[in-house]
Design brief:
There is one protein chain. By secondary structure, the protein is an alpha/beta fold. It folds into 2 domains: 42 residues, no CATH class; 210 residues, Rossmann fold, CATH 3.40.50. Helices cover 42% and strands 12% of the residues. The strands form 2 sheets. A 5-stranded parallel sheet has the order 1-7-6-2-3, with helices on both faces. Helix 10 runs parallel beside helix 12. The longest helix is centred in the N-terminal third of the chain and has 21 residues. The chain is globular and about 65 Å long. The N terminus is likely disordered. It binds zinc ion (ZN).
């Protein structure tokens, strides 16, 4: 194989286009130009930390300071609620919260604790001002949700369902961060996403500042399932996707609606998770 052949092969492998479309020299020039353009752009707009905007060496990343403040949720944790334990209390031991208030869903997992840094990432995610941020969060969620993505031997692939926004809110914002996270998770993990399976029947007031019971009342009856879409999920497990879980009232209300419609098993996956009483975290 001569040099040009190898060059043709590598170009072919890289962008998968037909070799006859463009002469190799033109493609080499074009790729070189793209690299050059990127370097110039990086010089004019150097890559910035997705949280604090300081200049970083690598695009679409966090600076070392922000990265070090992100707190991944890892074992040991409550197998149901996914809340971290300080020390392991046995593989099947549940958290006090899961025993006192068993949730309607089977398992919840989140990538990071909702501390100051996670909160700043989530608010940027909400307004969609850094599209690459959603990909970053989805990658961390894929790792945190590994257990949920595993399948029983004869189980069909689970379906991802993002928590919907009410139409009026989505119209104002033009973006639903849960949809975007579910879409990226679906493409990274090869799973189907059904954003229209449930919708918000009414606009709920913002949950900020409400107690757990007020939150539960606020979202009760807020969701309804689309009967025609339910047929597509018959016999399949659903993973509800959201950006942040606070008290779990939203994902619980959504789970109840789906369980009421015959869905057999529901798991929940979020980017961040509020853990109350974790000193220095909130
Ligand atoms: Zn930073």
């Amino acid at each position: 194989m001569g040099f040009m052949d190898r060059d043709r092969e590598s170009v072919k492998a890289r962008d998968g286009e037909r070799l006859s479309d463009t002469p190799v020299s033109a493609r080499v020039f074009r790729d070189g130009f793209a690299r050059f353009a990127r370097t110039v752009l990086d010089h004019i707009y150097p890559p910035a930390c997705m949280s604090c905007d300081i200049v970083v060496g690598v695009a679409d990343s966090l600076c070392p300071e922000c990265w070090s403040r992100l707190r991944p949720i890892t074992s040991p944790m409550c197998p149901v609620l996914g809340l971290p334990f300080e020390v392991s209390i046995g593989p099947d031991a549940l958290s006090a919260e899961a025993i006192a208030n068993p949730p309607p869903f089977s398992r919840a997992r989140s990538a990071v604790l909702h501390n100051e840094i996670a909160s700043s990432l989530v608010s940027r995610l909400k307004f969609g001002d850094r599209p690459e941020l959603a990909k970053f969060c989805a990658r961390l969620m894929l790792g945190a949700g590994a257990e949920l993505l595993e399948r029983e031997e004869d189980e069909q692939a689970p379906v991802l369902v993002p928590v919907p926004l009410h139409r009026s809110r989505q119209w104002r914002r033009r973006y639903n961060q849960a949809n975007e996270l579910a879409r990226l998770l679906g493409s990274l993990g090869g799973m189907e996403v059904l954003p229209l399976l449930v919708r918000r029947r009414r606009a709920t007031r913002a949950q900020i500042g409400l107690s757990a019971s007020q939150r539960a009342r606020n979202v009760a009856g807020a969701f309804e399932a689309a009967p025609d879409a339910l047929a597509a999920v018959a016999g399949r497990r659903i993973i509800i996707v959201d950006d942040v879980i606070t008290t779990g009232s939203t994902v619980s209300a959504l789970s109840k609606v789906l369980l009421g419609q015959g869905v057999a098993k529901i798991d929940v996956l979020s980017f961040s998770r509020v853990v109350i009483g974790d000193a220095g975290v909130l």
